[in-house]
Design goal:
The structure holds two protein chains of two kinds. By secondary structure, chain A is of the alpha+beta class. Chain A is built from seven helices and 13 strands. The chains are: A alpha+beta, B mainly alpha. At the A-B interface, β4, β6, α5, β7 and β8 of A face β2, α2, α3, β3 and β4 of B.
């Protein structure tokens, strides 16, 4: 644990350091979208579309980064440390791995896991011409197919995708605020990513009838290489501090009328020695005359 | 006739209404798994691959619509509240366990002042930004350049007593005093930081290597070792003048009573037998590896005979083994080596009369 020795010189600097310190309940994970030096049009557009979806919680670096994450993650780790991000997306392309996109996440600015996807049949946001969804909207995530829990790789991939796309952790959502849906279907050895706008219509009940309109991006992803965290590192990363866990409220119940009830547990009392007479201090004064009389005494 | 027309019209109206209000029901073989806190739904149902391959986009669109409908059904069953004239759903906490971005914050050690304040029950009180200064008749801020200017205004003159020395500059003295107090504050801050770092470090063994300024712990340890480094292990060793009687430190060995809980004794013996007869490996490799990763060096063998050898010593030992027919003195097993009760173990001793 490195302790900062030099004090920050400005209030702004102090606030920034406080923001980067580890917290009990963390803020939304920020994603770093990187352009590789060999990125193809498809893979680059995919990363740009990811940036459009996650605009509120990501930064896009459009310069060509000559990195090879599966060989050396260090430059990406350094970038994530510098900009305090914990997710990254990196696009590249070569003969062996065409239209390549790597999604990864960090723990303590060290690589936790990363998965390489091949992007096929890509339809960009710009290719599908219709009204899109507002920025920063929390999407509904749908995972279909039983591979997601059967296969170890797929289950880690699912965790990564949830982390990437879930957006901010919120407690309240407007009834009309469910606008975006992302569906990941695992069939035929591929993951079909589809993105929809949710249209709600009357259904006669409180719950609306749903219609979906595809807005894009849409891609068929193929898992290529993976670099997954060891079981104990993953366990360590998932550890939540006890302060973050919800506290159990004991000895509280509500009756039919909604009033709070609790139980008091009394020790055994000796009924022969109960205090029955009220002491002078607890006696209610009926008239001011009496009070003055008592005070005189 | 009229009745039938009316009936037709009504039934048609009902049909139209029913069409408008579409169903929210979706039939699935297996229920979906929901994590409403994350707006997540997981559909475990099998996907009909043939149907899928027939028309991919349509199949995916239908599947997504059904699943989103089910998720929305779940969401809309949650309690609603009104916030700022907006109807809002309160989401439960997320159930999928996702890794954190940074490790959980460790509890900060209290600084010297914080400890004292806690003891005495001193709490911080919110101070106002400016105070009313009677002399200057204006509101002076508590800190900053405006405060410095106000101070200058007030203390533009320094009274010097008659017996003061000539070469003492009272204004320069004021400046140096301020510098000293700043330096003192900085020193205390650094001391707090070092104290915090010392605490966070794992308690290493107190080294007895010669240092210029030995710490109190090191001195205590040296005294203890010197005291007990006698033939009687310090029992008949007189203490130094101001030395406190040395108490045994370290873990106390705990022995079960000879006669007592029979059940405990039987369970213990059975445990031993089970461990002996079980097919589980005695060494839990995962545990050992994890321990080594988290606290490197904690599993190093610290017993006798495996001390750190110097390079030259290692070379010598290796050189020894190269020769044929040399037997290590420890392993010679001659009767002469064994004396009653004690084992003579010599490290790297001279070879006597061994053939090459």
């Amino acid at each position: 644990m490195s302790v900062r020795i030099t004090k920050p010189k400005t209030h702004r600097g102090k606030r920034m350091l406080a923001k980067r310190e580890p917290k009990i309940v963390e803020l939304a994970k920020q994603a770093l979208m990187l352009r590789g030096s060999t990125a193809s049009v498809t893979s680059l557009q995919f990363v740009k579309d990811l940036y459009s979806i996650k605009r509120m919680q990501s930064t896009y670096f459009g310069q060509k980064h000559p990195y090879n994450p599966f060989e050396d993650v260090k430059p990406i780790e350094e970038l994530t440390q510098k900009y305090d991000h914990s997710l990254f997306a990196f696009c590249s392309d070569n003969k062996k791995r065409p239209n390549n996109v790597i999604l990864g996440r960090m723990f303590d600015h060290q690589l936790l896991d990363m998965i390489e996807f091949g992007v096929e049949q890509f339809k960009s946001l710009t290719a599908i011409r219709n009204a899109k969804v507002m920025d920063g909207n929390k999407p509904c995530l749908i995972f279909s197919g039983d591979v997601w829990h059967q296969n170890e790789e797929y289950s880690k991939c699912k965790s990564l995708l949830i982390d990437f796309f879930r957006g901010e952790v919120v407690e309240q959502v407007r009834l009309a605020g469910f606008e975006h849906a992302l569906s990941f279907t695992a069939v035929d050895g591929k993951i079909f990513l589809r993105s929809y706008k949710i249209l709600m219509t009357k259904s006669g009940t409180k719950t609306p009838h749903i219609e979906l309109e595809e807005i894009g991006p849409s891609a068929d992803l193929v898992i290529r290489r993976t670099k997954l965290a060891s079981a104990d590192l993953f366990k360590r990363a998932c550890r939540t501090p006890s302060a973050a866990k919800p506290k159990k409220v004991k000895n509280m119940s509500k009756d039919v009328f909604g009033s709070k009830l609790g139980r008091i547990h009394m020790p055994r009392q000796d009924y022969r020695k109960l205090q029955v007479k009220r002491g002078r201090a607890l006696r209610t004064e009926k008239s001011p005359k009496k009070a003055s009389k008592l005070s005189k005494k | 006739m009229a009745a039938s027309i009316v009936q037709n019209v009504l039934s048609k109206a009902a049909e139209d209404e029913a069409e408008k209000l579409k169903s929210i029901q979706v039939d699935k073989v297996v229920e979906l798994e929901y994590d409403v806190g994350n707006l997540l739904a997981y559909d475990i149902n099998d996907i009909d691959v043939n149907q899928f391959r027939a028309d991919k986009e349509a199949y995916l669109a239908n599947l997504s619509r059904d699943n989103v409908q089910l998720l929305i059904n779940q969401i809309f069953q949650l309690p609603t509240i009104k916030v700022d004239n907006e109807v809002v759903i309160k989401l439960p906490s997320a159930t999928t366990r996702l890794p954190r971005a940074k490790p959980a914050p460790k509890e900060k050690a209290l600084s010297k002042w914080e400890k004292y304040a806690k003891e005495k029950g001193i709490t911080q009180r919110k101070k106002s930004k400016a105070t009313w200064d009677e002399e200057l008749q204006k509101w002076v801020p508590r800190f900053g350049f405006k405060k410095a200017l106000a101070e200058k205004e007030k203390n533009w003159v320094v009274e010097v007593p008659g017996n003061a020395k000539d070469d003492v500059d009272p204004i320069a003295l004021r400046k140096t005093k301020k510098q000293e107090s700043v330096a003192k504050n900085e020193l205390q801050r650094l001391r707090n930081i070092s104290a915090r770092m010392q605490k966070s470090k794992t308690k290493a063994k107190i080294s007895l290597e010669p240092t210029e300024r030995p710490t109190a712990e090191q001195l205590n340890r040296s005294v203890f070792i010197a005291h007990t480094a006698t033939a009687s292990v310090g029992k008949f060793q007189p203490n130094l003048k101001e030395q406190k009687p040395v108490l045994k430190s370290g873990q106390k060995r705990h022995f079960d009573p000879l006669v007592g809980d029979i059940k405990r004794e039987t369970s213990k013996s059975l445990d031993i037998l089970n461990k002996l007869s079980s097919k589980k490996p005695k060494l839990d490799i995962d545990k050992a590896v994890n321990r080594e990763l988290n606290t490197p060096g904690s599993l190093d063998y610290k017993g006798k005979g495996m001390e750190k050898k110097s390079k030259t010593q290692l070379k010598k030992d290796l050189g020894k083994r190269k020769h044929k027919g040399t037997k290590d003195k420890k392993m010679s097993g001659k009767k002469g080596d064994r004396s009653a009760g004690r084992s003579t173990v010599k490290k790297g001793g001279k070879r006597t009369g061994n053939k090459n």
